[in-house]
Amino acid sequence: MRLSAFLLALLPITVATAQQQQQKPPQSWLDKVKSYIPKAASAPVASAAAKAAANSVVTLTNDNWRSVLTPSTTDPSEGPESWMVFFSGGNKTCYGRCTGVEKAWNESAALLATDPSAPKLAYVNCDKSPVLCTTWAAAAPTIWHIQLPVVAPDQSKPATTIRILGLNTTTTTARDIVKIHSEKTYEKRPVYEGALHPFDGWVAKSGLSVPLGYVLFAFANVPSWAFMIVISMGSRYVM
């Protein structure tokens, strides 16, 4: 009798434990696969992603960006044409903090290359193309989502829509970048309408983008002590 009473007392505990085990979500197949993959395998994966990105991403420079960022169709019904331009850099313009974001970009480019509805992809290294980044007033790391209007010959050209998305150098993942397209997270950002808008800003319409870019780049590279000398000499002249 005592044994039976003891077993009856344990029955609710046993049932509760079984229910808790049933409520636990099963480990996904992907998680199981990941647990068997050694960490060293990430290097070949990153290398493959970089190669895939190189095949699907156009590198923009100060000489070619105008010809590249042009609609590939003349049919207005197929527009606007979307682009994602990734601005990155090295030690000079990103202070060596863009390595992780570059890896995420390469992985996302490989994923977006398999989606026929994905935007076209472009890349700018601000260390190698500083005048272009200065002309656009683009910082690294950022992604510019650009929608190029497709205009019929008898129509006036509407504005080119640009939205700028900043990237966290430590937490940005390939999934975050893919979501810019798949979940249209770019729509959460305001439309850029500044004077340095590379297509529609008054600087670009006046044909001053390139000269201004070189001037700003030159000023950015003048050492601070040189400015102090000029100011000192100017103040003496005035006095």
Q: Kindly name the structural category.
A: alpha/beta
The fraction of residues assigned to DSSP E strands is 5-15%
Q: Average pLDDT, to the nearest integer?
A: 78
SSE arrangement, N to C: HHHEHEHEHEEHHHH
Question: Nearest-angstrom radius of gyration?
Answer: 27 Å
Low-pLDDT stretches are 1-42
E-strand count: 5
Structure report:
- This protein is an alpha/beta fold.
- It is built from ten helices and five strands; from the N terminus they run αααβαβαβαββαααα.
- The protein has helices at residues 2-23, 29-36, 42-56, 65-68, 99-112, 130-136, 174-182, 202-205, 209-220, 224-238; strands at residues 57-59, 81-88, 120-125, 142-148, 161-166.
- It has a five-stranded mixed beta sheet with strand order 1-3-2-4-5, with helices on both faces.
- Helix 5 links the parallel strand 2 (81-88) and strand 3.
- Helix 3 crosses helix 5, helix 5 (99-112) crosses helix 7 and helix 6 packs across helix 9.
- The longest helix is centred in the N-terminal third of the chain and has 22 residues, at 2-23.
- The chain starts with a helix and ends with a helix.
